[in-house]
Write a structure and sequence with these properties.
Blueprint: H1 14-46, H2 50-69
Helix pairs in contact: 1-2
Length: 77
């Protein structure tokens, strides 16, 4: 049976919001790290690029990813 003291929309959801933000952040940055690692390993071992070229490409991907994925400031209205 339903709890008579429960009122929809009155619960503090700050912990759920913080957990959601943490999971989304870990997913976002973890995906970037995985993509950079896969690019680096693929270029180093599967092409003639070599270690230095693979490292440059992976660092470039990481920098572009950080710029694209960082938190944007809210637009002032």
């Amino acid at each position: 049976m339903a709890d008579p003291d429960y009122h929809r929309g009155e619960m503090d959801i700050s912990e759920q919001t913080a957990t959601y933000a943490l999971v989304m952040g870990m997913t976002k940055w973890g995906s970037l790290a995985t993509a950079a690692l896969i690019l680096w390993l693929t270029l180093w071992f599967c092409t003639e690029t070599g270690f230095l070229g693979a490292t440059v490409a992976a660092v470039a991907l990481t920098v572009i990813g950080v710029v694209a994925l960082r938190e944007k400031s809210a637009a002032a209205h």
